[in-house]
Sequence to fold (703 residues):
Amino acid sequence: MQFLSDSHGCDGWKGEMAGRICAFDWSQTDLGPLDTWPTSLRSAVQMLLASPLPMVMLWGRAGYMIYNDGYSEFAGGRHPYLLGSPVELGWPEVAEFNRHVVDTCLAGGTLSYRNKELVLLRDGVPEDVWMDLYYNPVPDDTGAPAGVMATVVETTERVVAEQLRQAAEDAYRADNERVRLALNAGALLGSFVWDVKSDTMSADERFARTFSYPPNQDLSNLAQDVARSRIHPDDLPWVKERVVHSMQTGEPYNAEYRAQRSDGSYLWVLASGACEFNEQGEPFRFPGVLIDIHERKIAEESLLKFTRNLEQRVASEVGARLAAEEQLRQSQKLEAIGGLTGGVAHDFNNLLQVIAGNLHLLARHEPDNANVQRRVSASLAAVERGAKLSSQLLAFARRQPLSPAVCNPQQIFDGVGELLQRALGETIQIDMQLPQEPWHINVDRNQLENAILNLAINARDAMQGEGTIVLSALNTRLDSTFCAGKGICAGDFVRVAVSDTGPGIPPQMLEQVFEPFFTTKADGQGTGLGLSMVFGFVKQSGGHVEIDSTLGEGTRVQLYFPRSLRPIREESPSIDNHQKGGHETILVVEDNDAVRTSAVELLREEGYRVLTAGNGDAAMQMLLEGVDVDLIFTDVVMPGLIKSSDLAGWAKVQAPQVAVLFTSGHTRDIISRNHQLSPDTHLLGKPYGPEALLQMIRAVLND
Fold:
């Protein structure tokens, strides 16, 4: 978006938006330079700039947007990018609605809507909004309609308030019904109305029985003194104080007290009501109800007796709180390190993707050159090592996309058993211990198996290649004391533990073992990312990691995962991974030129028809112009107004839907929640090879 310094033709225009309109390079649009605008257009702009209401003009068939200060506030994060943009590109989620508006007004018609409900994307998230909308045609110098003047007043707050008011009325009616039912059921002890001026009361039979009025007493004229005499002497001053407070302030009256029964015993009651005032502001009427709360008060007294040793209990928990605070400080430190490592890994993945993509293309173009193939293979091996390092960093930063599924430890141990034995060697014995009926957990099975393998290799190295490693699982319930400061809630958990009989870890090192690149091994024998990856994966899965070690006895790492009550789904039969390419049309949206070029070349060699866009804005404009595509292959994070999630939202509402495949160094929260992908979201992580790309493209197209 370009701006000019010339303000020619802007005389009399005031406000921030006036300056932006004057500085905008309109020669890039159908309106042409500002000094060539017709008088009608200038007058319309001057009128909207002077209006205190949010107004926007849509000029021409494309609906180029010119708006005032009020509308800029309504536009939010889309301002100032909306200025000079076609309305359908600026608001793609309501493009069809705005096209109808422009067509109607350019034909000479007008439109108005009262509390019109629309779904707008705000920060990439669909949000229900309500607005008063008024559309009128704007004539050119010949009198023919050339644009649309729109007044946009958001009424969301008012509509929501009305909905809340209606809900409150419904709740009030429901409360009245509950009161009636409670009266019939005996929970209420009666209702009363106190005439303040005459100091008399009218009440129902239940109220009269509660305060032991004579059986034949006129219920429309009950003496106030009788009811007062039945209130416990210790409670009477409090009751009087609450009555006076309600009469002075108009606040609701609520007082709990003891009323004497006819047998001399006392009953706990709650008197609830409100004072009504006459036109002179004087209290004249005091209606209310009496509710039986005796059982609740007896329970409260029992609880009070039970907690009289509170000071001792508080003292015993001070130590636990200090320990929880230390846990929290450690967690915050690891969180800060994770934020840094996650950002580094994301940028690193983009670099690896450029290198890998070009290496694969070089290998394809020189299939008979043994020297090229050898050097490419060596380079790709280095890329894979870099990708593994980046993956471990993302795991620690809790920014790896997870695909959790319900499973149990028995399945995990069966799946990893043979792999462990091969990786650890014959001199290591593996002792697997499982409960008779292990609970289910909801985790990414591959990531959990990798975590167990990492821990087992650490244990083997600690024992110098000889000894027994215990791999165990346990159903356990964690209480609030244990969970304090650990980021988990009390409840049922499955504990997976890996134990060794090595030399142990010194206490001063235990606080650092989960930090990335920290290792007790000699230089060149480890990256120091194994435990960091385990830590990040478990935390991202909603669990907790504990490590305890005793010098000379060994180390135990315990992974706690929340219990899942969902059943285990049967695995679907595997399909042939080798799927040939097709002739569908793919739109590749990628702001990195090198990454985009390598992907496009590979897809075209496979037979696909490929279109490209350097960002989401360009892609959305192509789609709105009617380009037919079968799949959108888009990077997650790109510059510009239109985000990848907006493209996916557009694709979902098409008939039929357009397939979408995301790619990224990590997901962030644009397409995921806590980096756990929804079942209908497809993601190809960077760096990827040609086989992975082609298989994923086919799988998404065939879905």
In short: The two ends are 39 Å apart (CA to CA). The domain at 186-305 is CATH 3.30.450.20 (Beta-Lactamase). The chain has four domains: 16-154, 186-305, 405-564, 585-702. DSSP finds 21 helices and 24 strands in the chain.
